[in-house]
Amino acid sequence: MKPMNQLLSLHQLQPEQLHQLLQLALQIKHQPQLYQQALAGKSIALLFEKPSLRTRVSFDVGIHKLGGHSVYLDQQNGAIGQRESVEDFGRNLACWTDAIVARVYEQKTLEKLAASSGIPVVNALSDLYHPCQALADLLTLHEQCGDLATVKLAYVGDGNNVCHSLMLGAALCGMDLVIITPPNFGPDGHELQRALKIAASTGGSIQLSHELSAAAGAQALYTDTWLSMGDQADPAELMRRFSAYQVSTELLQRLSVPYLMHCLPAHRGQEVTSEVLDSDASLVLQQAENRMHVQNAVLVQLLA
């Protein structure tokens, strides 16, 4: 098993490595005093091409809790690859920092940073993946449901970067995942095949459907915004295609699903109603908190 030296996508991990990350995240969450100096003397660059609340704050605060130092860089420093090449950006950051956390528009930017810098790079969101979010989701499901290999999760909405990382994470854990989208809005075919291959070796399953009834009996129903940040689409057309997939209290009750999950930010009244988002069924704040704990586990694994 290759050691973990980057986190650009969950498909880089073996099932055992993912399990170890989740167990480490639980320990950091419940025994933080053991890790107060885990990153002492380490500096982490936080590189953001996109706006952020949860990702920026959870990394910044988490690094501080581990005794490390973070440096925030946004587009005021010049767009990555325009003022200077991505490769030069990475090489320079490697002169001063021990790792790079990057939230970018394109996955290839992360790959260039990793190749040029020679230091660990963590994907904090790209067009293809959102691995840190999926890790937080898996930790939340483990806390609520126990053994992930016994969990059925239903994802409803657009087959986007969050969906791709959930597919890979679920497959690595041996979970059953059903992805419910409008026609022509399913996940990327290459990412689906990658997840199916992993699931075949772990006992998990990935099912695609256009029908909400496929979510019946799931432990949780997961949704996301219908339009990913930075994407361009006709809002009226999106409403026409997606409105039947709105998650509500009535839907959860009809399908006998106890929990709602959402990576946030939510567009209330579109993909999810405020009633269910603010209800006892909602796990969204537990997911948000767990972002910090799983990200801390990733950084400890990479740097400590």
Automatic annotation (TrEMBL):
It is an enzyme of class 2 (transferase). The keyword Hydrolase does not apply. GO terms for molecular function: ornithine carbamoyltransferase activity. InterPro entries: Asp/Orn_carbamoyltranf_P-bd (IPR006132), Asp/Orn_carbamoylTrfase (IPR006130), Asp/Orn_carbamoylTrfase_sf (IPR036901), Asp_carbamoyltransf_Asp/Orn-bd (IPR006131), Orn/put_carbamltrans (IPR002292). Gene3D superfamilies: Aspartate/ornithine carbamoyltransferase. Residues 6-143 form the Aspartate/ornithine carbamoyltransferase carbamoyl-P binding domain. The keyword Transferase applies. Keywords: Transferase. It holds the Pfam family OTCace_N. Its EC number is 2.1.3.3. Residues 151-301 form the Aspartate/ornithine carbamoyltransferase Asp/Orn-binding domain. Belongs to the aspartate/ornithine carbamoyltransferase superfamily. PANTHER family: ORNITHINE CARBAMOYLTRANSFERASE, MITOCHONDRIAL, ORNITHINE TRANSCARBAMYLASE, MITOCHONDRIAL. This is Ornithine carbamoyltransferase.
